[in-house]
Amino acid sequence: MVRLKKQTIDILLLITIITIAIFGIIMIYSASYIWAEYKFNDPLKFVKNQTLFFVIGMLLLYIVSKINYYTYFEYSNMLLLTCIILLIFVLIPGIGTVRNGSRSWFGIGSFGIQPSEFTKLALIIFTSKYLSKNIKDIKDIKKGVLPLIILTLLIFGLIMLQPDFGTGTIIVMTIMGMLFMSGVKFSFFMRIGMVGILGVVGLIIAAPYRVARILSFLNPWKDPLGSGFQIIQSLYAIGPGGIFGFGFGNSRQKHFYLPEPQTDFIFSIISEEFGFLGVIIISTLFLIIIIRGFTIARNCKDLFGKFLVSGIIFGLAFQTVLNLMVVVGLIPVTGVTLPFLSYGGSSLLITLASMGIILNVSRYQK
Amino acid sequence: MFFKGIHSRIKIVLFVFIMLMILIVFKVFYIQVIDYERLNKYASGLWSRNLPIEANRGLVYDRNGVVLADNLTTTSLVLIPNQIINKEMTSSKLSKILDVSVDEMKKHVYKKTSIERVHPEGRRLTYDIADEILSLNLPGVYLVKEAKRNYPFDTYMSHTLGFVGIDNQGLSGLELMYDDYLTGSYGAIKYFSDAKGKKLQLTEIYEKPQDGINVTLTINHEIQLALERELDNALSKYNPDQALGIVMDPNNGEILALSSRPNFSPSNYQDYTVEEINRNLPIWATYEPGSTFKIITLASVLEEKLIDLEKDTFHDSGSIKVENARLRCWKHGGHGSQTYLEVVENSCNPGFVSLGLKLGKETLFEYINNFGFGKKTGVDLNGEGSGILFNLDNVGPVELATTAFGQGVSVTPIQQITAVSAAINGGYLYKPYIVKSLNEPVTNSVIKLNESQLVRKVISEDTSSKVRYALESVVSNGTGRPAYIENYRVGGKTGTAQKVKDGRYMVGNYIVSFIGFMPADDPKVVVYIALDNAKGVTQYGGTIAGPIARNVMLETIDVLNIEKRKGGMPKEYNYLDKKYATVPSVVGMNVKDAMKLLKSFKVEFSGSGNTIMYQSPSVGERIYEGNVVRLLLTEGGD
Predict the structure, then answer these.
(1) CB of B21 less than 8 A from some CB of A
(2) Residue A3 lies in a domain
(3) Given this model, what pLDDT does residue B576 score?
(4) Whether A225 contacts chain B with CB within 8 A
(5) Average pLDDT value for residue range A43-72
(6) Stated pTM of the model
(7) Same domain assignment for residues B333 and B436
(8) CATH number at residue B96
(9) Structural domain containing residue A309
(10) Taking Cα atoms as reference points, which of A287, A297, A353 lies closest to residue A321?
(11) Number of folded domains in chain A?
(12) Number of neighbouring beta carbons within 10 Å of residue B141
C-alpha cells in the first residue's frame, strides 16, 4: 500500500455532486407526485424513498471519502466474487423480484437493491487492479486483454439473463473505455468496431423490419403509439418548454402523457419546467463532474487510482450521455437512467459511493 | 512509466464526452427553440380539450331591417365522461331529469370519448331543465350555449326563407343557399387535460365563436305581409289548389314580396310533405300563362311597328281559322270590329292570333327569348324552373297562333313578372334578385352588395310607353277593371289558362292570374297573382286575381309612398259600377257657384263666410259620385 500525504478533498466536485443530487430529489418530487398519487395514493411516495437513499448515499459518500482507496485494491477479488454470486442469486425466482419485466432486484420491503449496480463498481475496481498490475502486457491482446474481456462478457451474460440491457451495455462499454485509456492499441478497437458493423449488417440482412423499428427514433411520428410513443412524448415535454420553461411544478407531460416521468425521461420534465436555460445548467453540472473526475484521474500518482477514477467517471459520463441522447431523440430508446436525477435507490447509492471514492482519491494528488 | 500514454487517452475520452454533451445541448436547442412552434402546437392539441360553443347563425333582414329569421339562445347538455367521478349516480340523476331510460343515459356517460353530446334528449333544453342540471353541480357535466333558429313570422315566406335542421344547418330556401355565409364558426372553451381526460388546474382559454353573416333581402316586410294576408284571404274565399304572388320593383329586378300556398311552418317542417316544402311556386311552378303572355306579343308587334293601336282594326267573328284549325275567342260570338287597343282591352284571342301571324315565328320567338322565357332567370333562389317553349323547327302556323295568345308555352311566374317588368319599364330586362346584401354580424355593415343586373334591352322606351298605355286601358276599360285604383293609374293584364293534364286540357280547371303595375306613367311596382283551380266562382283572371292584386297594390301605395297621379284614364262603367267624377276647382268661388259645380257630390262646410278658401279633395282628383267634398269658408271676396 502506498502511503501519501493527505490533502483536502476536491471541494468544487463535492459541491457540484450535492447540488445535482438535491436538484434530483426536487425534480423527482415534481415529476412523480401525480404518478405516485395515482399509483400508490401517496404523492410523496417516490420522493420519500429517494430522499432516504440520498441521506444514506451522502453518509456513504462521507465514509467512503475517508477510506483510503487502496483498501479496495486489497479486497477487489472478494468484492467482485460476492457481486457475481449475488447476480446469480437474483436470477432465482423467490429470491430476486421482477420489476418492469426484469428479475434485477432484491426486494427489501418497498425498496429494491440491484446487484448489477454494485457489480458495475466492483468490476471497475477489479479492472483497475488488473490493469495496474498487467500494464506491461496490455499491448498483447491475448495475454493482457482477453482474460478481462472474457470476465466482462461473463458478467454481461449474467445481467442479460435478468434481462437488463441498459446496465449490461454500460458495464461492457465502461470496461472497453478503461481498456482504451490504459493504452490498448487502436487497432483492437477498430476490429471490435468492425465486428459491431458486421453485426449490424447481419441484422439488416436477417430482419430488415427490426432495423426499421430501431431507426424509428429518426421519425417517431411514423408509429406514434408504438415505438415512437416515448420519444414523441419526450419531445412534447422538451419542445414546449422553450427557453425559460413552464416553471417548477408546471410540467404538463407528467400528467400521464409521459409514463413514469421520474425515471428514464426525467430530463424531459426538467427541460419542460426549466427550459433551455435549465438544460444548460444541468449539462454544465454534469460536465463539471466529468472534467473534475478526469482531472483527478490525471493528477493521481498511481495507476490503480487513475484507472479507478477514470473508470468510474467513464461509466458515469457514458450513462449520462446515453440517457440524454435517448431523451432528445438522437438514438433509439435503451432504458438507461440518468445518474443523480432519475429515481432509483441502488443507482443513487452506488453513484454517491463512487463519488466518495473519487473524492478520496482527490486527497492524494500531485 | 505509462502515465503519458494514459493521459493522452484520457484527453481523447474527455474530448469525446464534451463533444457529445455539446451535441446534446444543440439538439435540445433545436427542439426548444427552432422546432418550438411545431411541437408546441402538436402538444397543445394533445393537452387541450375543446368545449364547443355554437355561433349565432346570421340573421335575415328585410330591406328595412325587419328581422325575418333570428336565433333563440338555448342550452345543451355536454358530458366529458373522463371527468365524471360517480358514473352510476350521474346516469341515474340525468336520466330522471331528461326523462330518458337509465340504460340509455349510461351509454352516454360510459362512452369512451373526450366529449359526448346527449343527442337529441339533451339538446335545446328549456330553462327549467337546464337549471335543474346545473344545480346538481356534477363534475364532467356541462351545459353549453346553443342557438336555435327562430322565425318570428312563422309560415311567412316559408319557401323562400327555408329552414334549418337540428344542428342549425340550412336545409332549404335561403337558409340552404346561403348556408356557408349564415353559419358562423364554433368558438370553444379550451381547457387543459391530463392524458386520462381529467381537467388540469390551468387557465381556461375562451375562444369567441364567430357569428354568421347577416343577409339582407330586397323584400319589403309590409308588402310581404299584405301579400301573405291576401293569399290567406284568397285561400279561404276560393279554396284554390295552389296560390302564389310576386311583387317586384320593375326598375331594378328587386323582389319586394313573394309567397305561395300551400306554405309551411319552418319550425315544424317535419309535419309537411316534401312537395309542400320544396316547391317554391313563384319560381318553380311551370304552366301555360294564358292571356298575361299577350303582353309579350303586344310589345313585340309594337316594337316592330306593325300596327297602330288606335287606327288599325280587327274583326273578331268569335273564331279564327289557321291552317286547318279553328281557334276560338273566349267570348262566344266574338268581339266584332275593334281597334287593336280594344283587342288588347278585350283580350281577344283571334286578334292576337292575327298579331302573331303578322310577326311570324322567327320574330315572335326571338322576342320571347329576349324577354327571358324558356330559360331560368337566374334569380338567387333554389329550385327555379325554366319553362318550356316550342322548338322553333316544330312551330307551324297553329303553334305560332296559340303562342301569340299564351297557349302551348309554359312559363314560370318569375319569368312572367320579369318579362312584363321589362315591357313596361322602358324595355330593360333585369335579372330578378332577392338578396340585397351580406352584412358583417357585429356592425351589420355591408360586406357584399348585390346590385341590379341588366340582362339586355328588349324594346324601346317608346314601345314600352305604348304597352303601358294599352295595359292601363285594359284596367280602365277592359278585362282588368277589378284592379282599378282611382288616381293611381293601374295597368295590367288578366290571364285565364286551362290546365293541361296528360296532354289534354282539363275541363273547368284553370289557373287564373293577373299581372298589374302602377302607376302606369312611371311604374313603381309590379304585382303578379295566380290561383290554381279556384272553386265556387267563374274562373276568370280579372274577377278573381284582379281584386287580390288590387289589394296588394293599395298597400304598396302607403308603403312605397306612391304619389297620386293626374291624367289617368277614367274607368269605363258597367251598369253595376259606381261612377267616379273629377273634382273641379272651386277655391275662390262663392258658395252658390261652387254648389253648381259640385252637384254630383255631397258638400260639407266648415268656417263661416261666403268665399271658399280651401277644398278637399283638391282639384283633379277622382272620387266616387256622392262622396263628400269639404270646403273651408272665409269672409270677404266679392
Answers:
(1) yes
(2) no
(3) 45
(4) no
(5) 93
(6) 0.62
(7) yes
(8) 3.90.1310.10
(9) 11-362
(10) A287
(11) 1
(12) 21
Which of B169, B198, B215 terminates a domain? The answer is B215
Is A4 part of any domain? Answer: no
The arithmetic mean of pLDDT across residues B350-371, rounded, is 92
Please give the Cα distance from B475 to B495 (Å, whole number): 13
Q: What pLDDT shows up at residue B231?
A: 93
Catalytic center residues of B? 291
Higher-scoring residue by pLDDT: A107, A150 = A150
Range of the domain at B30: 3-34
Scanning A292-351 for CB atoms below 8 A from B yields 294, 297-298, 303, 306, 310, 314, 317-318, 321, 324-325, 328-330
| Chain B residues with beta carbon closer than 8 angstroms to that of A306 | 3, 6
Residue B285 within a domain: yes
Residue B495 belongs to a domain: yes
Q: What is the dihedral of CA A308, A313, A316, A320, to 10 degrees?
A: -160
Q: Would you say residue A66 has pLDDT above 50?
A: yes
Map grid coordinates 484507472 to a residue.
Answer: A307
Preceding omega of B519 cis (within 30 degrees of 0): yes
* B232 and B371 inside one domain: yes
Which residue among A183, A243, A321 places its CB closest to the CB of B20? A321
Q: Is A235's CB within 8 Å of B31's CB?
A: yes
CB atoms within 10 A of CB B84: 22
Q: Which of A238, A302, A361 is most worth mutating to test chain B (most B CB atoms within 10 A of its CB)?
A: A238
- Judged by CB atoms closer than 8 Å, whether chains meet at B33 and A276 is answered as yes
Domain annotation covers residue A358: yes
Q: Which helix (H) or strand (E) holds A204?
A: helix A186-206
Query: For residue B575, what pLDDT is reported?
Result: 45
Q: Measured between CA atoms, how close is B84 to chain A, in angstroms?
A: 17
pLDDT tens digits along A168-212: 999 999 999 999 999 898 899 999 899 988 987 887 787 776 676
In this prediction, what percent of chain A has a pLDDT beyond 90?
58
Q: Is B565 within a domain? A: no
Q: Are B431 and B216 in contact (CB under 8 A)?
A: no
Summary mean pLDDT of chain B: 86
Per-residue pLDDT at A139 = 83
Q: What is the pLDDT of residue B638?
A: 47
Q: A–B: how many Cβ contacts below 8 A?
A: 125
pLDDT-based confidence at residue B9 (cuts at 50, 70, 90)? very high
Which of B192, B215, B238 marks a domain boundary? B215
The total of structural domains in chain B comes to: 4
Give chain A positions within 8 Å (CB) of B10.
181, 294, 297-298, 310
Report yes or no: A181 and A293 within 8 Å, Cβ to Cβ.
no
- If you measure CA to CA, which chain A residue comes closest to B33? A242
Report d(CA A19, CA A66) in Å as an integer.
21
Over the stretch A110-145, which tens digit does the pLDDT of each residue have? 677 889 999 999 999 999 999 999 888 888 888 889
The number of beta carbons lying within 10 Å of the beta carbon of residue B35 is 15
Task: Clarify whether residues B316 and B401 are in a common domain.
Answer: yes
Model confidence pLDDT, tens digit, residues B388-418: 888 888 888 888 998 998 888 899 999 999 9
pLDDT averaged over every residue in chain A = 89
Which residues lie closer than 8 Å to A146 by C-beta, 6 or more apart?
Answer: none
ipTM for the complex shown: 0.94
Question: Has residue B84 been placed in a domain?
Answer: yes
Average pLDDT over residues B76-98: 85
**Spatial separation of the C-alpha atoms in residues B592 and B605, rounded to whole Å:** 13
- Examine residue A180 and state whether it is found in any structural domain, yes or no: yes
- Nearest-CA distance from B39 to chain A in Å? 6
Long-range residue pairs from B373-377, CB within 8 A, at least 24 positions apart, any chain:
B373/B296, B373/B409, B373/B411, B373/B415, B373/B419, B377/B412, B377/B414, B377/B415, B377/B418, B377/B431, B377/B432
* B16 and B88 part of one domain: no
Q: Give the nearest partner residue to B39 out of A181, A236, A318, using CB atoms.
A: A236
CATH number, residue B617: 3.30.10.20
User: Same structural domain for residues B421 and B545?
Assistant: yes
**What CATH number is given to the structural domain containing B439?**
3.40.710.10
* Pair B362, B401 in one domain: yes
